[in-house]
Amino acid sequence: MTSVTTTAATELTVRDPRDGTLVGVLPAATEEQVRAAVETARAAAPGWARTDPAERGSLLRAAADRLAEHAQELAELNARETGKPVEESLGGVMAGVGTLHQYAELGPVHRGHSLRGSVLAADWTVAEPRGVVVALTPWNDPVAVAAGLLGAAVVTGNTVVHKPSERCPHTGARLGEVLAAALPPGVLTTVDGGAAVGARLTAHPGVDVLAHVGSTATGEAVARAAAATGAHVVRENGGNDALVVDDDVDPAWAAEQAATGAFANSGQICVAVERIYVHRAVAEPFLAALTEQARRRNAGGIAPLVDERLREEVHRQVAESAARGAVVLEGGRVPEGPGAFYPATVLRECTGSMPVMQEETFGPVAPVQVVDSFAEGLRLAAADRYGLAATVLTGRIAHAQQAVAELPVGTLKVNNVFGGAPGGAAQPRRASGAGFGYGPELLDEMTQVKVVHVEMPPAGS
């Protein structure tokens, strides 16, 4: 394994969001250590690019197997750093194992295309690794997301410098140790740190790809850095995903869908339901059922947010929205006691000017606006600066088709807030990012195409 040993004074202190106890302290990488990490990856890149694709796939498969062996350890560490329940954390780790296995199979068969030209010549394209990839990954599903970016980059012949979120640095560091032990030296390096370390990585002229999953503000900073260095950018950033409820659906079922979308993982999911538009004809039974869903979750004990900083932001949005006229049906208060807990919250009488409708909340909040028609719901859902995903609940095929045509998002789900086939990939739009961040198409993002033309020289030459 290639590691960056940090000795800088700047430290990352992580506390368990469930009770505030200390998880650990890690030093952040210095400027010199960041530079060394990129240089190590750059030095290893030519040899790794020349490695037979089948061998790269085999080594990635071995890395996936090592990850499976350490799954429980990583799940427990993740739970301590982020508050995500151990069983859910374990599901994320195993999803990462599956993703690595998927790329181990797809990588060796990722290829160019033959081109049709002169019958006396040969034309084709070759997919070549881009070089050094910097992967900046989030805390809300740290192993699964990292596995996708790291796996796709490594199997296509790139070397990687990975910076996990400063909110789960121990999980990220251990993940790096587990995976890098199965790979040649220099292929995968992990560095810990906060925004300063990320800025140094993204500004480094020796980086060829910047792959980022996280906030829109950071993603925009990554894009600006790439404009100066020429690095290729893949980024999935914030979302403010809408749910539109038609008048012909069962309101109790629709409330279950809304609750799942808004409250799963305490709302800390990139494609969580962030704003709800419900048809007036079913609004009252829908709101009653959604409020009951929130009460059940609160009575059963909802997991904490990742830290008190996020809780303060979530509550700010709720409190400001309530001050502007939103009615709190459930939750909406910071509980007493230790930890970063926040209750499942339902708001009605919301309007588009309120923070809970305008901003990505990233907490267990379900803000509801009543609309007079499905068309009005679509119009309001589309009027947003983000373009990650959206869901519509309707029994009318014409309305589903209308949603496909009118919602400017990368992913549209009809009648299932978290539905989707395995291997799916979408391109987020506008403030939500750009490029394919998942699926087989991510292999294309990690490579660049060379066109080759070969023909015989003239006779007698």
UniProtKB/TrEMBL annotation:
Residues in Aldehyde dehydrogenase domain copies: 10-452
Keywords for the protein's UniProt record, in alphabetical order: Oxidoreductase
InterPro entries: Ald_DH/histidinol_DH (IPR016161), Ald_DH_C (IPR016163), Ald_DH_CS_CYS (IPR016160), Ald_DH_N (IPR016162), Aldehyde_DH_dom (IPR015590)
Pfam family for this entry, one: Aldedh
Entry GO MF terms: oxidoreductase activity, acting on the aldehyde or oxo group of donors, NAD or NADP as acceptor
Tagged with keyword Signal: no
Domain of life: Bacteria
Listed name of the protein: Succinate-semialdehyde dehydrogenase
Name of the coding gene: gabD
